[in-house]
Amino acid sequence: MELSRYIHLNPVRAHIVKNPLVYPWSSYKDYAGERTGWDWVKTQWVLSQISRNEKRARKGYQKFIEEGSGRAVKDPLEQVVSSTILGSEEFVEWVREK
To answer: 58 with 33: CB under 8 angstroms?
Structure first.
């Protein structure tokens, strides 16, 4: 759910648009029920996390997105204790130096 919100709020946080509904390259309109033109966009799983009722799910998803629009995005690596770096030796060394 957080990943979906993160994706849909990217154009808002980048100050491209104020409302994710007006960003033309977003699937948010499909989730909100404002468009049904892109049949390859699958919204069912995300919406089902909110409600089995489609109308309630779409309304709840819009609320979920709105609740996140004013919040700062937390660094997902903030609480990482240990990790693995995958890549060439040069890349691994570059990451370690950073």
So the answer is: yes
Which stretches of 7-46 are assigned E, i.e. beta strand?
A: none
Q: pLDDT tens, 35-79?
A: 877 788 999 999 999 999 999 999 999 999 999 887 777 766 676
* Pair of tokens at residue 8: 């849909």
What's the Cα-to-Cα distance from 44 to each of 15, 58, 84, 90, rounded to whole Å? 28, 10, 34, 42
Instruction: Return d(Cα 5, Cα 35) in angstroms, integer.
Output: 18
CA distances for 73 relative to 1, 29, 88, angstroms: 14, 22, 30
